[in-house]
Amino acid sequence: MDAFEIHGGSPLCGETQVYGAKNAALPILAATVMVEEPCVIDNVPDLEDVRVMMKILQTLGASVRRDGTSVVVDAGNLRSTNVPADLMRRMRSSIFLMGPLLARFGDVRVSKPGGCVIGQRPVDFHLRGMRALGASIEEKHGFIRCSSNRLFGTEIVLDFPSVGATENLIMAAALADGQTVIQNAAREPEIVDLANFLNACGANIEGVGEDTVRVQGVHHLHGTRHRIIPDRIVAGTMLLTVAATRGKVTLTKAEPAHLGALLAKLKQAGVRVHTDRDIITIECLKPLRAVDMRTAPYPGFPTDLQAPFMAAFTTAEGTSVIRESVFEARFKHVNELTRMGADITVDLQTAVVRGVSQLSGATVEATDLRGGAALVIAGLMADGVTRVEGLQHIDRGYQQLDVYLRDLGAVITRTGAMS
Ligand code: EPZ
Asked: Are residues 205 and 62 in the same domain?
């Protein structure tokens, strides 16, 4: 089993470039099934989840090929609307294919995505919205079947600003008859990027990035070329790693405007932050000051940075209170951090992190993507050697994480099965 072997204590220093956002690339690649002409998507990260999405598109009959950091998709001759169950199980984001396949073909079958370690992750908001657009939904034997001769524009109010539901419903509404209004919509930058792609293909979507989105259905979408935005979660993870190791790093090809909540917390903690166009430079010369944090839908503090944030603040001066308000079970990394000497107590959705002077290296197991990144950060901070197992989780969302960290001075190697 692959693992990272980390020798802690080296501050991260230098410069690194931020690559394309996984959570923008996945819905945009799914949206290409709505387009009957070739699309070129640039700045697509080379991650396991992206490779699975490309495989799903190929299985549906699209031609898909990677050309460096670009992916060329031609869904003109799509022949199936059944998303393969085995691939669906490998990546729950394949639920993003529901809206596009329903919009173009009036028929789609996906396997019901299971929960995962961070929570139940139901898809009721997605299904309620599809019904409101006129689809009939059948759920049985672990599959969801959506079908409709035509989709009709309607009013939808989301119970919670769900990222995936907002994206799926925008895609379904893009080819519906008439106007759809989605209220209490999620505002994440990845949704804006999806809308920009669809509008470049001839869709008519307004208000994305605000809480009310208007989609005027059109009859046809044409091919386009689109560049994916930088990955704000990868950038945020890197910034927290620099702060945790008391280093100084410049991120290029970043988007500071997408990281407002994190940059504010880092400044509050005493980190020196400088931004200029697509560059973020931070320097951390002394222990962090403890700060409280609560995750929230964008533009609040991103839930995907909660675990990396917690790891960085395990050795802060003082006590940080962290509230996870988006997912109901996103503290799976706490046990492993406490095994490394962190002092964290959890009560339901709140974790109290009392700063300790030093973590100590240990063998730990990643159980989800961002929790795994938190364990890598802890290993880079710790005294001694840390072995992080469960890299299949980390590889889903971080491209060659060990290579990027080594280039900044980290002592980290990827090893095979434990000798
Ligand atoms: C997206 O997941 C991201 N994934 C997640 O990133 C991210 O954590 C999440 O948004 C929140 O920002 C992708 O974009 C591929 P939600 P999504 O629907 O769309 C509940 C990562 O690490 N809910 O906004 O699944 C849900 O259970 C991943 O890159 C319903 O109850 O998140 C959760 O508590 C992890 N019913 C809350 O809403 C629904 O129908 C937010 O979920 C849908 C969601």
From this structure: yes
